[in-house]
Specification:
The chain has four domains: 218 residues, Beta Polymerase, domain 2 (2-Layer Sandwich); 122 residues, 3-Layer(aba) Sandwich (Rossmann fold); 79 residues, DNA polymerase, domain 1 (Orthogonal Bundle), CATH 1.10.150.110; 44 residues, 5' to 3' exonuclease, C-terminal subdomain (DNA polymerase, domain 1, Orthogonal Bundle). 39% of the residues lie in helices and 14% in strands. The chain has a four-stranded mixed beta sheet with strand order 1-14-11-9, sandwiched between helices. Strands 5-4-6-7 form a four-stranded parallel beta sheet. Helix 4 runs antiparallel to helix 5, helix 4 packs across helix 6 and helix 13 packs across helix 15.
Length: 501
């Protein structure tokens, strides 16, 4: 939905899209992608079911015989056990050693360690459960000392949902460069490279310190050689030539410009580029047939590319609340997205609407939109879109067969205006699904993606913006709050302002 935010008065014009999300069948878990094979010494080659967990058993005070026995036990249960300390290790297991003793030992062997330092109790409990358990405080080895120049013994998870990421980015010089590379990979439709650059950037954002030398990156997960080279170039020269050349690349500039038009994807942008179009002026002058969404996006392009301020978001919230409460006074209208995470600017404004009486929310948006249209605040209704298309993660994970009422409709506005067009998404959710919808629509996108990936790989659950389905127990898990969802997943609760991955 796009609201034309008035510059002189409270009048708005609305542009939104509305549809009902269809039912989806619960998808069977085909297995863990990327699972590796583990060699159990003199035993047969076995599949490492929990390949994303790398265990290193400290031999000191444990003894070689016991270490060998525990290694074979873990491998037979599907765990990946490393014989040597490396960057792929996520858990360092020790018996009868202090955290400082383990760090000193590892420092001599491999330098800085950012894997979780855990007591043997975590290992035995995980073996008993047949899966890797969450590391609780009682499992962690206490560390009293830290080396100069950076945090030691602070585990950094490869999952954004296990990291606390505020808006205080101490490594913006590196993350901005990686963002350009990620954008280019996306424009080239290379999903693997896009995720690699995005995850590397996300981890750098979460670091509580500024990277000043390449050694500061030792042990940090998800940092490939390409990313390290970019960082090394910036550390040495202040810039990365690869990134600077890419920014000046004509195709990159053109596709980025065209895909910033609402309704235009990479394939369409690339098609226009191959047809010789380079600017918006050329696109407007061409005889290319645009969809209604693309036409409206191009018409209000100059408005929509300007960031929305928090003040504008608050003004829009009052307008939306007024319209909603006219038909459903007790409805809850929640500002979500980046603004809920504490951001001062955003590219759109998202609202989640529900009512404690299940079913009351059905059809509400139609009433709201029709009323706003009658007030001459909205005109020119565009075609409906499916809500599934609007959820960038819906196709990737699925939602275990539950439907969400997600209503959106697109509107253009009158030609003469004294307001600013702003994109707004309205979502209605049944009260029983509200906590899941709130979590999903708060973001950030990578935080949500990793939350769902973690749920699938570690908990054998399917998480979406509608529900959490336990694939082992074959049942949906109810939750009244976001805290309960994190508890279901065995994760520490991370507040919205620390989800800026």
């Amino acid at each position: 939905m796009t609201l034309g935010l008035a510059a002189k008065a409270s009048r708005v014009a609305v542009w939104l899209s509305m549809a009902l999300l269809p039912q989806k069948k619960k998808r069977k878990d085909p297995g863990l992608p990327g699972a590796s094979h583990s060699w159990a010494g003199d035993g047969p080659l076995t599949l490492a079911k929990f390949s994303e967990v790398g265990i290193f058993l400290v031999e000191r005070k444990m003894g070689s015989s016991r270490r060998s026995f525990l290694s074979q036990l873990a491998r037979k249960k599907g765990f990946r056990v490393e014989e040597r300390m490396s960057e792929s290790v996520t858990h360092v297991v020790s018996e009868n050693n202090s955290g400082d003793e383990v760090l000193e030992l590892l420092d001599k062997q491999s330098g800085i360690c950012r894997a979780a330092l855990v007591d043997i109790t975590w290992f035995t409990e995980s073996m008993g459960a047949g899966k890797p358990l969450e590391v609780e405080n009682r499992h962690r080895l206490q560390v009293k000392t830290a080396a100069d120049g950076g945090p030691i013994g602070i585990p950094i998870s490869q999952y954004a949902c296990q990291r606390r990421t505020t808006l205080d980015n101490k490594n913006s010089l590196f993350t901005e460069a990686l963002k350009v590379l990620a954008e280019n990979a996306q424009l080239c439709e290379n999903e693997g490279r896009y995720l690699a650059f995005t995850r590397a950037s996300s981890i750098l954002k979460s670091l509580p310190y500024s990277v000043t030398k390449i050694d500061d990156l030792q042990g940090i997960p998800s940092l490939g050689e390409h990313c390290k080279k970019v960082i090394q170039d910036i550390l040495e020269d202040g810039i990365c030539r690869e990134v600077e050349e890419l920014i000046q690349n004509e195709r990159y500039q053109t596709l980025k410009r065209f895909t910033s038009i609402f309704g235009v994807g990479v394939k369409t942008a690339d098609k226009w580029y191959r047809e010789g179009l380079r600017t918006l002026h050329e696109l407007r002058a061409s005889k290319i047939l645009l969809t209604k969404e693309q036409g409206a996006g191009l018409l209000y392009y100059e408005d929509l590319i300007v960031p929305v301020t928090r003040t504008e978001a608050d003004s829009i919230r009052k307008i939306v609340e007024g319209a909603v409460h006219r038909f459903l006074p007790a409805a809850v209208v929640k500002l979500t997205g980046g603004f809920r995470r504490g951001k001062e600017y955003g590219h759109d404004v998202d609202f989640l609407i529900t009512h404690q009486e299940e079913g009351k929310e059905q059809g509400l948006l139609y009433q709201v939109i029709n009323w706003m249209a009658a007030q001459k605040d909205v005109v020119n209704v565009l075609r409906p879109n499916t809500a599934g298309d609007h959820d960038p993660l819906a196709k990737e994970i699925g939602h275990g067969g539950r439907a969400e009422t997600c209503e959106r409709a697109t509107y253009a506005a009158v030609k003469v205006k004294d307001w600013k067009a702003v994109r707004v998404d309205l979502v209605t959710a049944p009260f029983g699904q509200y906590a899941y919808a709130l979590l999903g629509w708060t973001g950030s996108q990578l935080f949500e993606r990793d939350l769902r990936r973690y749920a699938k790989h570690f908990k054998h659950m399917s998480l979406s913006s509608h529900s959490l389905f336990d694939n082992e127990q074959k049942k949906f898990l109810s939750a009244a709050t976001e805290e309960e969802i994190f508890a279901h997943l065995g994760l520490d609760y991370i507040p919205p302002e620390e989800r800026n991955a």
